Amino acid sequence: MSSAPAAAAPAPVHPITDRTRAALALSRRHCDELLPEAEWLAKLARAEATGTPLRIKLGLDPTAPDIHLGHTVVLNKMRQLQDLGHTVIFLIGDFTSMIGDPSGRNSTRPPLTREQIEANAATYYRQASLVLDPAKTEIRYNSEWSDPLGARGMIELASRYTVARMMERNDFAERFKAGTPISVHEFLYPLMQGYDSVALRSDLELGGTDQKFNLLVGRALQQEYGQEPQCILTMPLLEGLDGVEKMSKSKGNYIGITEPANAMFAKVLSISDVLMWRWFALLSFRGDEEVAGFRREIDAGRNPKEIKLLLAREITTRFHGAAAAEAAERDFELRARGGIPDEIPALSFDGAPIGIAALLKQANLAPSSSEANRLIDGGGVRIDGAVVSDKGLKLGAGTVVLQVGKRKFARVTLR
């Protein structure tokens, strides 16, 4: 890899065809920014004229063991571009995870251990393959080129970007102004993510809107190393179940793409009627005109829940199949009527009689006895369909169905 900028040869001009324009429109659909658009159009035209696929990169740090629906907003866009015939590179940031991404944070993010990273990375690609076509996906780990850099290479890389440019990043500037500590290693994160683009010679890098700065660093570093700079495409961040914060496992407002079909279906239906439209735009594969038609139907008096059911079916079918989505819908309807689902956990315990609060904790229906008592006070606990009001209740030997709220059930046998 050259260590000094090289003069780039003038790029040939290729015709802009209807197919190229359609590819540009697909790239822009529901994205936040596509920069620079003219360069991306030229790349698309070149790819069509020469038959050479473009290299499209998405990097994800395995900071948690599971991928949630928020991650799929960008993965869906990757799949669309993959279906156009371009090369998709799914990059697992096993090296950068050890630094910790400071994007959007007001404090230093604790880096993960190698053991945590390896455990999380083990599931990432398998789950991403539920969206991407695994036969057409190049999977890479950024430790491939980051580990061999060593101290000398890291210093050389750091010389190619200034502190002043690094401080243009909003979260760094705000923390510096507030006197909040910024560790030197946090400056290395955008540099290393940018170096990924150099190593992979990417033509386009995708990310959430919170990744814009890091993506632009990649573009700048490619120019430093004499490469044609990548374009960047940012996708909006998906609001979670609360409709306020971005979807995040740490905030508990997420839907994991490997969650059971019944849970996934019910969680999608739990979102607000307002949030539903945002989810249609970012998660649904339905056309814009069809979704606009749904809006008109609701304005004319159709129940919004009927439209939300369509979204729940679509998302659940994508990750579990049509049969599982249909079963999840039947299960949801049964629970809504107060019925008991066909499939619930079956548990056995010794030591009857057992107090109801202790039993709820043992059955993992409540995190603690005190929380179990709070649920009882709120009328949220049932035994065989009957509401429990006595916190001092003791259950003797036998089998009962415990229910907490509308979704948690267990068939418990006491001995």
Automatic annotation (TrEMBL):
Enzyme Commission identifier(s): 6.1.1.1
Binding site for ATP: 249
Molecular function terms, GO-annotated: ATP binding; RNA binding; tyrosine-tRNA ligase activity
Principal subcellular localization: cytoplasm
Single GO biological process annotation from the record: tyrosyl-tRNA aminoacylation
Reactions performed catalytically: tRNA(Tyr) + L-tyrosine + ATP = L-tyrosyl-tRNA(Tyr) + AMP + diphosphate + H(+)
Class of enzymatic activity (EC top level): ligase
GO cellular component: cytosol
Keywords: Aminoacyl-tRNA synthetase, ATP-binding, Cytoplasm, Ligase, Nucleotide-binding, Protein biosynthesis, RNA-binding
Protein name: Tyrosine--tRNA ligase
Species this protein is from: Piscinibacter sakaiensis (Ideonella sakaiensis)
